[in-house]
Design goal:
Blueprint: H1 13-21, H2 45-54, H3 57-63, H4 66-70, E1 77-83, H5 106-115, H6 118-130, H7 140-173, E2 176-180, E3 186-190, E4 199-203, E5 211-217, E6 223-227, H8 229-232, E7 237-241, H9 253-258, E8 260-266, E9 277-281, E10 291-295, E11 300-301, E12 306-308, E13 312-319, H10 325-328, H11 339-374, H12 393-407, H13 414-432, E14 447-448, E15 460-465, E16 472-483, E17 486-488, H14 503-510, H15 512-518, H16 520-523, H17 527-538, E18 543-546, E19 553-556, H18 560-571, E20 574-579, E21 583-588, E22 591-601, E23 609-615, E24 621-628, H19 629-636, H20 642-657, E25 660-670, H21 672-687, H22 692-703, E26 708-719, H23 723-732, E27 736-740, H24 745-754, E28 765-767, H25 772-788, E29 805-810, H26 811-817, H27 822-831, E30 833-839, H28 843-862, H29 868-880, E31 882-887, H30 893-898, E32 901-905, H31 912-915, E33 919-921, H32 926-963, H33 977-987, H34 989-998, H35 1005-1010, H36 1023-1048, H37 1060-1082, H38 1088-1114, H39 1125-1130, H40 1133-1160, H41 1164-1174, H42 1184-1192, H43 1207-1211, H44 1217-1223, H45 1228-1231
Parallel strand pairs: 15-27, 15-31, 27-30, 28-29, 29-30, 31-32, 32-33
Antiparallel strand pairs: 1-8, 2-3, 2-4, 4-13, 5-11, 5-13, 6-7, 6-12, 8-9, 9-10, 14-33, 16-17, 16-26, 18-19, 20-21, 21-22, 22-23, 23-24, 24-25, 25-26
Helix pairs in contact: 2-21, 6-7, 7-13, 7-33, 11-12, 11-29, 13-32, 13-34, 14-15, 20-24, 21-22, 23-42, 25-27, 27-28, 28-29, 32-34, 32-36, 32-37, 33-38, 34-38, 36-37, 36-40, 37-38, 37-40
Length: 1241
C-alpha cells in the first residue's frame, strides 16, 4: 500500500481523476515531485492551492496552512453545512419579489408615493379646503371626485404594471427544482421552497434555482458547461468545475446524501467574478482524513445561468432568493426625470404665485368694497359678526384669501399629470417598442425602458458613443499578421467569404509568400511561424466543438478577438482540434502536436494581456503571451532587436491606419527549475485569498518579464450597417458627436474617417501631451485656433455658432486634464468641435468626459453670475441641451448612467449596458430614427399637451376672475364644483389625449429623416412661449366667454336667461366649445376618431348638465342651480347665438395670430408641412447622396436594377417615379415606417 489505501503499482482512482482535472498531474508527469504532494501542474492556481490545503487536515490544524488563511474571518463569513441535503434554517427563502404591492400594502404605499409629489399634495390640500363650507365657493364633492378619478387612473396603471411583475414572480417561484433526499432519491419542489444547505440536481437546459456549489458532474472530467445569458447576456458557453476533493469525485448520489462537510464563505455580495471560500470535507470510509478545498468562482453555479451539454450536476445551495448574485445585481438604474418634469415644477410655482397674487388682489378689493359699499347695504348684514363674516379686517382678509384660493384652484390642471403618464407610456411601449423600422436582423425591437425621458429625445445636443460593438459590429475577422517585421495577408480578401476553400488553397490565396514559407523544408514550418501559430492556438480560453456533419471545428468563448484569431488560423490550416482540462491538441497543416497546459494567467483590463505556460511535445516549457500592443511592446524591448522593433512599429502603424485592431504576441522559454520555483511562489500567492489578486498580479509580472517578440495580429471589426449615414445625419442635425474608445490613435482616426465622423483629416486637431503643462499649452493653442476659425463654423455648428472643427485626444493626455483646471479648457475646445475622438480611454474616463461637458455647458448657460438670473439660464439650458451616451458593454455603464439619456445597444458584449440604459436599440443606425422621429414627435406632442392643459384651466379661472368684479368680490362662482370637475376631467381631457397620441408636425415621418437640419430648432416650451399661449391666450378666452354672455343676455319675456344660473350654464358651454375648437386648431393631423371625440366632448357638457338635472329630480333634490335651468337655456335662441359669437371672436383672434406667425415668422415644421404639400411624395427630388443616406438608414429600399435601366440614380429621382404612382403620394409602404395606431388614420 502507498499509505492511501492503494496497492503498490496500481494507480488510485484519485490519481486518475486528478490527471484529468489537474493538468500535468499523475505518475507519468514530467517535472519531478514535491514533498507531500502528488506530481501535479495546475491550470487553475487556486485549485492547486486547494490541493496543498486538503492534502492533510492534520497539517491545516497544526500549522495554520494557507487554506485556513484563505477563508474569510468567522465574523465576516457564512457557514453552510452539508448534512445529506438537509435544509439549514436561519437564511432567506428562495422566493423572489420584484412586485411593489400586495392587497394589504397597496393603498398606503401608493398613496404615499402619489402625495409625496408636490402637485398631488397641492390637489389634496385643495380638495380638503373645498369641504370647508364656510369659505369654499364650491362643494367638496367636485374637487374630491376629480382627485379620486386621477388617483384611480394612476392606480389602475400601477396595478396593471405590478400584476405583470406578480405574474413573472409566480412563474419563477413555481419552477421545479430536484432536491436530494437522505436516501439518495430526489423530490420535486418549487423554487421558492429551496433552502440553503440542500443538494439539488440540475439537468441540461435547466436554470440553476439558486447559487450552487458544484459537487459533482456527470462529465468524466469533473467539469460542466454553463450559459450565462441571463446574467451578462453572453451566449458563449463557459466552463465550471466540481470541488475536486480527492476521494470524493466518483461518489454516487446516495453517497453524496451521506456526505458531511462545512463551507465557510463570504457574505452575500454582488460580485460576479470572484468568490472566496473554503470547504472542509468530513472523513469517510476509505479516506483516512477529510479534505479541505479552496472554493472560487470556478466552482460556483449562479442562479439564472443554464446548464448545457453536461448531462446533470449536483450542487449545494449557498445563497438563495434576494441574496443570490443575480438578485444583488438587479439594482435599478438611477431615476431620471424628463425636462418637462423640471419645466412643470417651475411653471407650477409661477402659476401658484399668480394664484396668490389674484387672491391678494381680490381679497383686498373685497375689504375695500365692504367698507365703502357693503356696510351701507344693511340687508347684507356685513356689520354683524357671524360665520364667514368678521368685523376684524385681518380675519376677514384671511377668510377672503382662502375663499379665492379655493375658487382659483383650477389654475393647475389636475388631469395633466395622469394624461402625461398615459401619453408617455403609449409613446414608449406602443410607438417605440413596436416600430418596425427599428427591428434588427434578430427580430428584436427597440425598448423604451424609461419613458420619463421621451421628450428629451427631441432635444439632444451631444452624443457620446463607444466604438467597439456600437459603431462596429463586434464581428471580428482576421485580416493580416506580421512575422519578423513582414506583413502577410491581403487586406481586400476575406477568409470568411470563402468557406468552401481547403486550407492549403486558402493560405495560398490569402498570402502566397506565407504559403511558400510554410511549405519550405519539406513541408515543415519555420520556428518563428510555429511559435506564432502555437501562441494563437494556445493563448485563449475557447471551447472546441466539431460539427459531426461537416467535420469543421467551431469555437466559443467570451472574447470575440480570440474566436476571430483561432477561426482565421483554422481556415489557413492551423487548427485547435481538441481541448481537455489539461491538454490542447494542435494541427499545423495536418501535423498534430499535443501541449500540456501548466498555468493560465487570465486576461484583465488592468493587465491588458493573457499568458499561458505550457509544456510542448518535446518537453520544453514555454510562456505564450498575447495582449494590447502598448503593453506587450514595452515587455519585449529588452530582448528584441532594434531593427525588428522598428519594423514592428511600422506594421502596427499601418494596420491601425487601415482601421484594424492589433494585438502583439510574444513568448519565452522557461527552464524546468526556473518554472518550478516560480510555480511554487505562484501557488502560494493563489492560496492567499486576502491578497490573492495583488500577489497573483505580482507573480505574473515576474514570469512575464523579458519576453521575445513573436509577431502581430490585425483584426477587422466591421462597421455596422448605416453607421456613416447615421453620423452624417446627427452632424447635420447640429448634434456634436464624441466617440470614446480604447483603441490606439491611428485605429480610432481611421475608423472615424470611414464612418464620416472626421470629414477633414488634413485639418484635424490633435492633442497629445506627456505632462500637465504640455496638455495645458496645447489646449490653449487649440482654443485660439478654433476661435479664429469661427467664420467658417456657422453652418455646421450649433445655434451658438460653434463649428466644424474636429479634435482627437488620447487617454494619456486626458488623464492630465480631467479633474484639473485644464478641464474647462478641453470642454471649451470640445464645444467648438462638431466631432471629437478620444482614444485609449478607460471606462471611468468615459463617464468623466460626459460629466465634464455637462458641468461646462451648465456654467456657460448660467454665465459668471450666481444670482436668480444665472439660475434661470441654467434651468432654461436643461430644457434644450441634452447629452446622450450610447454603448453596448459593461465598460459603458458609467457613461450611460452619467448622461441625461442612456442608450444601450443589444449587442454581443452582454446586457449590462442595456440593463442600465433608458432606451435600448439593436443597431446604431436606429439612433437617428429614435431622435429625429420619436424624439421630435414626443417633444412636439407633450409640449402642446402641457400648454393646452394649462390654457383650458387658466381660461376657466379667469372667467371666474372677471366675474368677481360684478359680484362684490364675494367669491361667488358661476359654475358649481361638480361641473368644474367634469369640465376638467371629462369634457376637455379626451381630445387633448388623442392629440398627444396621434398628432404630428408633418404628414410623413420620412420628411423628418430627410431634413435633419430641422431637428431641435424650435422653442415650443420656452417660458415666454408658455406664458404667451397658456396664460395670455387663456385670459383673452376667459374675457370672451364671460363678457359676451354677461352683456349680451338681457331681460326679456318669461323665457329670459339673464339669471345667475342660466348665465353660468351659458358661459360654461361657451368655454367647453372654445377649448375643444382650440385643440382642433392646433392639431396638424385630423383623424375621424379625433374629430368625433372633439364633437362628443362638446356634447358631453350638455349631456352632463341634463343628467345632473335628472338625477336631482329622480332623488327629489331641489337645487335651484339645476332645476329647469338647462331646459330654459337650451330653448333660448340667445344661447345658441352666443355660441356662434364667442366662437367667432375667439377663433378670429387665434386665426389671425396663427396667420401672422405662419406668414411672417413661420416655424420650421410649418415650412416642412408646406414643402410636403408641394411634392407628390415626401422623398421626391432626392439628390443621389441624400438617397444613399436615407437608404443606409432604412428609409428607402435598396435600389432594384431591372435590366439596364440605371438612369434613376443618375437623375436624382431614385426609385421615386413608380413609388409615387403605387403609393398614392405616400411612402409608408416603401420605407417600412410605422408607429402603431397612428397609421390607422
Amino acid at each position: 500500500m502507498d499509505g492511501r489505501g492503494t496497492p503498490p503499482g496500481k494507480e488510485s482512482t484519485r490519481s486518475k481523476i486528478a490527471r484529468k482535472l489537474i493538468p500535468g498531474r499523475g505518475k507519468d508527469s514530467p517535472g519531478g515531485s514535491r514533498t507531500g504532494l502528488l506530481h501535479r501542474r495546475s491550470v487553475d492556481p487556486t485549485r492547486l492551492a486547494a490541493l496543498q490545503a486538503r492534502e492533510s487536515q492534520r497539517n491545516l490544524a497544526v500549522n495554520g496552512a494557507n487554506g485556513t488563511k484563505a477563508a474569510p474571518p468567522p465574523g465576516e463569513s457564512r457557514i453552510v453545512l452539508l448534512e445529506g441535503g438537509n435544509p439549514q434554517p436561519g437564511f432567506k427563502h428562495n422566493g423572489i419579489k420584484t412586485s411593489k404591492y400586495n392587497p394589504v400594502t397597496f393603498f398606503p404605499i401608493f398613496l404615499f408615493e402619489m402625495f409625496s409629489r408636490a402637485a398631488y399634495l397641492y390637489f389634496l390640500i385643495q380638495a380638503g379646503l373645498a369641504w370647508w363650507s364656510t369659505v369654499s365657493p364650491y362643494g367638496g364633492f367636485g374637487s374630491t371626485a376629480a382627485l379620486v378619478f386621477v388617483l384611480v387612473v394612476a392606480g389602475i396603471k400601477a396595478v396593471y404594471e405590478d400584476v405583470k411583475r406578480h405574474h413573472e414572480d409566480n412563474e419563477t417561484n413555481k419552477s421545479i427544482a430536484h432536491v436530494l433526499q437522505g436516501d439518495g432519491s430526489f423530490v420535486d419542489v418549487p423554487w421558492r421552497k429551496v433552502s440553503v444547505g440542500q443538494v439539488l440536481k440540475v439537468h441540461d437546459d435547466e436554470l440553476f434555482p439558486a447559487d450552487l456549489l458544484c459537487l459533482h458532474s456527470s462529465l468524466p472530467d469533473g467539469v460542466c458547461f454553463i450559459r450565462t445569458t441571463n446574467l451578462d447576456g453572453e451566449t458563449n458557453l463557459k466552463i465550471r468545475s466540481t470541488l475536486g476533493a480527492d476521494g470524493y469525485e466518483d461518489q454516487t448520489e446516495s453517497e453524496w446524501a451521506r456526505t458531511r462537510g462545512t463551507l465557510q464563505c463570504e457574505l452575500p455580495n454582488a460580485e460576479l467574478h470572484t468568490f472566496k471560500g473554503r470547504f472542509d470535507m468530513d472523513p469517510k470510509e476509505g479516506v483516512a482524513a477529510g479534505r479541505t478545498v479552496a472554493v472560487t468562482m470556478n466552482e460556483m453555479l449562479l442562479r439564472g445561468c443554464m446548464l448545457k451539454n453536461s448531462g446533470h450536476i449536483l450542487g449545494m445551495v449557498v445563497y438563495t432568493g434576494a441574496e443570490t448574485r443575480i438578485q444583488m445585481n438587479s439594482a435599478e438604474t438611477p431615476l431620471k426625470y424628463g425636462s418637462f418634469d423640471n419645466f412643470l415644477n417651475i411653471q407650477i410655482v409661477l402659476i401658484i404665485l399668480l394664484q396668490l397674487a389674484m387672491c391678494v388682489l381680490h381679497g383686498g378689493l373685497g375689504l375695500w368694497w365692504r367698507s365703502n359699499y357693503g356696510e351701507e347695504r344693511y340687508f347684507l348684514a356685513l356689520t354683524i359678526e357671524g360665520q364667514g363674516n368678521y368685523t376684524s379686517d385681518v380675519a376677514q382678509f384671511f377668510i377672503n384669501m382662502v375663499t379665492y384660493w379655493i375658487l382659483y384652484s383650477y389654475l393647475v390642471p389636475i388631469s395633466l399629470f395622469v394624461t402625461m403618464e398615459i401619453v408617455k407610456f403609449w409613446q414608449g411601449f406602443v410607438f417605440v417598442n413596436s416600430d418596425p423600422a427599428m427591428e434588427d436582423t434578430a427580430g428584436q425591437y427597440a425598448k423604451a425602458r424609461n419613458t420619463n425621458l421621451n421628450e428629451d429625445l427631441g432635444k439632444v445636443s451631444y452624443v457620446f458613443s463607444d466604438k467597439t460593438g456600437t459603431l462596429t459590429s463586434n464581428e471580428m475577422q482576421l485580416r493580416q499578421i506580421a512575422l519578423d517585421g513582414t506583413a502577410y495577408g491581403k487586406t481586400g480578401w476575406r477568409l470568411e467569404d470563402h468557406p468552401t476553400l481547403d486550407a492549403d488553397t486558402a493560405l495560398h490565396t490569402w498570402d502566397p509568400t506565407l504559403h511558400a514559407a510554410a511549405q519550405q523544408e519539406g513541408g515543415d514550418l519555420t520556428n518563428a511561424q510555429r511559435l506564432f501559430w502555437t501562441n494563437i492556438l494556445i493563448c485563449n480560453s475557447l471551447i472546441v466543438e466539431k460539427d459531426p456533419v461537416t467535420g469543421n471545428y467551431k469555437y466559443q468563448g467570451p472574447s470575440p478577438d480570440e474566436v476571430a484569431l483561432v477561426e482565421g488560423a483554422a481556415r489557413l490550416g492551423f487548427c485547435l482540434t481538441a481541448r481537455s482540462s489539461d491538454k490542447l491538441t494542435l494541427s499545423f497543416l495536418g501535423r498534430e502536436e499535443v501541449w500540456v497546459v501548466l498555468n493560465v494567467l487570465e486576461y484583465s483590463s488592468a493587465r491588458a494581456r493573457m499568458s499561458v505556460i505550457a509544456r510542448g511535445p518535446n518537453g520544453e516549457i514555454r510562456l505564450f503571451c498575447k495582449g494590447a500592443d502598448a503593453r506587450v511592446m514595452d515587455m519585449v524591448r529588452g530582448r528584441t532587436e532594434t531593427r525588428l522593433l522598428h519594423k514592428t512599429d511600422q506594421n502596427l502603424h499601418q494596420f491601425a491606419v487601415n482601421g484594424l485592431r492589433t494585438l502583439v504576441v510574444a513568448t519565452k522559454e522557461l527552464e524546468e527549475e526556473e518554472w518550478s520555483q516560480w510555480d511554487e511562489r505562484y501557488q502560494d500567492a493563489a492560496s492567499n485569498l486576502d491578497r490573492r489578486e495583488q500577489l497573483i498580479a505580482e507573480s505574473a509580472e515576474e514570469v512575464e518579464a523579458n519576453l521575445e517578440l513573436t509577431g502581430v495580429t490585425a483584426i477587422e471589426d466591421k462597421l455596422q450597417d448605416g453607421v456613416p449615414a447615421t453620423i452624417q445625419t446627427l452632424l447635420a442635425a447640429r448634434i456634436k458627436v464624441w466617440v470614446i474608445t480604447g483603441d490606439k490613435q491611428e485605429t480610432a482616426i481611421n475608423i472615424a474617417i470611414s464612418c464620416k465622423l472626421i470629414l477633414h483629416p488634413d485639418s484635424l486637431l490633435i492633442c497629445n501631451a506627456e505632462s500637465y503643462e504640455g496638455a495645458r499649452d496645447r489646449l490653449h493653442e487649440l482654443l485660439q485656433m478654433v476661435q479664429r476659425a469661427s467664420p467658417h463654423s456657422g453652418h455646421h455648428g450649433s445655434d451658438s455658432g460653434k463649428g466644424r472643427a474636429e479634435l482627437v485626444i488620447d487617454g494619456k493626455t486626458l488623464s492630465h486634464v480631467l479633474e484639473r483646471d485644464t478641464e474647462a479648457l478641453l470642454a471649451e475646445v470640445g464645444s467648438h468641435c462638431s466631432s471629437v475622438v478620444i482614444c485609449r480611454a478607460s471606462p471611468s474616463q468615459k463617464a468623466a468626459v460626459v460629466g465634464m461637458m455637462k458641468d461646462w455647458e451648465l456654467r456657460q448657460a448660467g454665465g459668471a453670475g450666481k444670482g436668480p438670473l444665472a439660475w434661470w439660464r441654467r434651468k432654461r439650458f436643461r430644457l434644450a441641451g441634452k447629452m446622450l451616451a450610447i454603448g453596448d458593454g459593461a465598460n459603458d455603464v458609467a457613461m450611460i448612467q452619467s448622461a441625461d439619456i442612456g442608450v444601450g445597444i443589444m449587442g454581443k458584449e452582454g446586457r449590462q449596458a442595456v440593463n442600465n440604459s433608458d432606451y435600448a436599440i439593436g443597431q446604431f443606425r436606429f439612433l437617428a430614427r429614435l431622435l429625429l422621429v420619436h424624439g421630435t414627435l414626443s417633444h412636439y406632442r407633450l409640449a402642446r399637451l402641457i400648454r393646452y392643459s394649462f390654457m383650458k384651466n387658466i381660461l376657466f379661472c379667469f372667467m371666474l376672475f372677471f366675474y368677481q368684479f360684478y359680484c362684490a368680490f364675494s367669491g361667488q362662482t358661476l359654475v358649481d364644483g361638480v361641473a368644474a370637475a367634469v369640465y376638467n376631467v371629462i369634457c376637455t381631457s379626451i381630445p387633448i389625449l388623442l392629440f398627444a397620441v396621434l398628432d404630428r408636425p408633418v404628414k410623413h415621418f420620412e420628411t423628418l429623416m430627410r431634413y435633419p437640419e430641422m431637428y431641435n430648432r424650435g422653442h415650443s416650451m420656452a417660458t415666454a412661449v408658455f406664458w404667451r399661449y397658456s396664460v395670455m391666450t387663456a385670459v383673452f378666452g376667459g374675457a370672451v366667454c364671460f363678457f359676451f354672455p354677461y352683456y349680451a343676455i338681457v331681460a326679456s319675456d318669461r323665457d329670459s336667461i339673464n339669471d345667475l344660473y342660466s348665465v353660468g350654464k351659458t358661459v360654461y358651454i361657451c368655454i367647453v366649445l372654445l377649448v375643444n375648437v382650440e385643440v382642433l386648431m392646433v392639431a396638424r393631423y385630423w383623424t375621424k376618431v379625433f374629430v368625433i371625440c372633439v364633437v362628443l366632448s362638446y356634447l358631453a357638457a350638455f349631456a352632463f348638465l341634463l343628467v345632473y338635472l335628472w338625477v336631482d329630480v329622480a332623488f327629489d333634490i331641489y337645487d335651484p342651480a339645476q332645476y329647469g335651468v338647462m331646459y330654459q337655456v337650451m330653448s333660448s335662441p340667445t344661447f345658441w347665438f352666443l355660441q356662434i359669437v364667442t366662437l367667432a371672436a375667439f377663433f378670429g383672434y387665434r386665426f389671425l395670430d396663427r396667420a401672422v406667425v405662419w406668414n411672417n415668422h413661420p416655424h420650421d415644421d410649418m415650412l416642412l408641412a408646406e414643402a410636403e404639400k408641394l411634392r407628390a411624395s415626401p422623398l421626391f427630388g432626392l439628390e443621389a447622396n441624400e438617397a444613399d443616406r436615407l437608404r443606409d438608414l432604412g428609409v428607402l429600399k435598396p435600389l432594384v436594377v431591372i435590366g439596364e435601366d440605371m438612369q434613376a440614380r443618375s437623375t436624382g429621382d431614385v426609385e421615386l417615379g413608380s413609388a409615387q404612382q403605387t403609393s398614392g403620394g405616400t411612402w409608408a409602404q416603401h420605407s417600412g415606417q410605422g408607429l402603431g395606431p397612428v397609421h390607422s388614420a
